[in-house]
Amino acid sequence: MAAKVALVLGFALFLFLHHSAAQTVHVVGDSTGWRIPPTADFYAKWATGKTFTVGDSLVFNFTTDRDDVTRVPKASFDMCSDDNEIGDSIEIGPATMRLTTAGEHYFISSEDTHCQQGQKLAINVTAAPAAPITPTPPSTKAPPPTSGRAPVTHVVGDATGWRIPQGGNMFYVNWATGKEFVVGDSLLFNFSAGDDVVRVTKRSFDLCSDDDDIGEDIDVSPARFFFNAPGEYYFISSEDGHCQQGQKLAINVTAAASGPMPPPSNARPPPPKPAPVTHVVGDAVGWTVPQGGAAFYTNWAAGKTFAVGDSLVFNFRSEVHDVQRVTKRSFDICSDDDEIGDSIDSSPATMVLAAPGEHYYISTENQDCELGQKLAINVVASRSNVPATSIATSPSSGPASSPGGSGSGSPFSSANTVAAALSATLFGLVLNFF
């Protein structure tokens, strides 16, 4: 019997490790973004050497109303045509596309002659690895042992980007919480025309002034800053009253590790405080009238943990949809009579979850809500208070029928939660079998 239990536990552990493998967010074109490139083969060279795996995401950074991104078959890709597009084109930047299937994927800009000038991307997506993770011998091409980790590009604000945040001063504080910034890393600021980013001293940061700026302000997006030295870094927007409304970021950069990590001590350190999570509502589908009706957003929320301090990002077409928080009564009858706060009709809209309890959101445009554009979630006080296998349910519809869901809310997904639920389910089934 002990051998059977050990076998079950081992297999469940393998499944957990397999499904909790880190998923990668690829920022297309890096700092160049998604635009007419300097050379026709620019995006082909960008993709060369990269590994794209099912579960990864592509982030296309472009200027809204001036560009778009459309997935197409190979024939349309070769002809620079969107006649046979796969899904709808996305006209609001930044756009996130999740890679859900293996095979060749083709993307173009359908604006004017952008594709003919090289704004097109072809990649090959591989299936997730099917073997358990095992140690491998060091490769001759591996980085030197003195480098503890590869440089990381931090996309400031994630899908929200660099703008006046809905959460005020705390939005970018929450975004930076729990992240590690190391010499060699970089920050990527995505913002709209008419905005900028400037590095300043702490005094200017506190006063929201650019009198003591460090270097030139950058008013062309996307803007990248590299960390060349450890210490405190301060960034603001110098436009009008943007800084005073929360468009400011302070981080601490540490020196790169100079050698291998020391062995762990016998003392158990306190568990780290979970970092706030940004959930992109509906993932790549965004906030729209869903094809699956009201069940679509119920399934999207199932299996996710929403905690105080987290954020919801609603990506939608401005002037077509909006988002409004309402009471349960208004949610059930698709009414905005009992609204909580003002409706937001400019995309992307970010809502910071400031209190525990049930939260309800609808679109007030036309019959959007009646057709399924509504979301109900339960917010807990702290992520550490929720077991890994907990299943979030729609407060209005009862427990979800499946522990799944449509995936992570951001490049920063709930894969671990889903994997834990799968492992627990498999564990129970195998025990019943024995």
Automatic annotation (TrEMBL):
Query: Is Disulfide bond one of the keywords?
Result: yes
Cleaved signal peptide residues: 1-22
Which InterPro entries does the protein's record reference? Cupredoxin, Phytocyanin-like, Phytocyanin_dom
- Domain Phytocyanin, residue spans: 24-127, 152-255, 277-381
Q: Could you tell me the superkingdom of the organism this chain comes from?
A: Eukaryota
Gene3D superfamilies attached here? Answer: Cupredoxins - blue copper proteins
Q: Its GO CC terms?
A: plasma membrane
Q: Which residues form a coiled coil?
A: none
Which Pfam families does this entry report, sorted A to Z?
Cu_bind_like
Q: GO molecular function terms here?
A: electron transfer activity
Give UniProt keywords alphabetically: Disulfide bond, Glycoprotein, Signal
Q: Which stretches does the entry tag as region Disordered? A: 390-410
> Has UniProt tagged this entry with the keyword Methyltransferase?
no
Which protein is depicted?
Answer: Uncharacterized protein LOC111461118
Lineage runs: Eukaryota, Viridiplantae, Streptophyta, Embryophyta, Tracheophyta
Q: Which gene encodes it?
A: LOC111461118
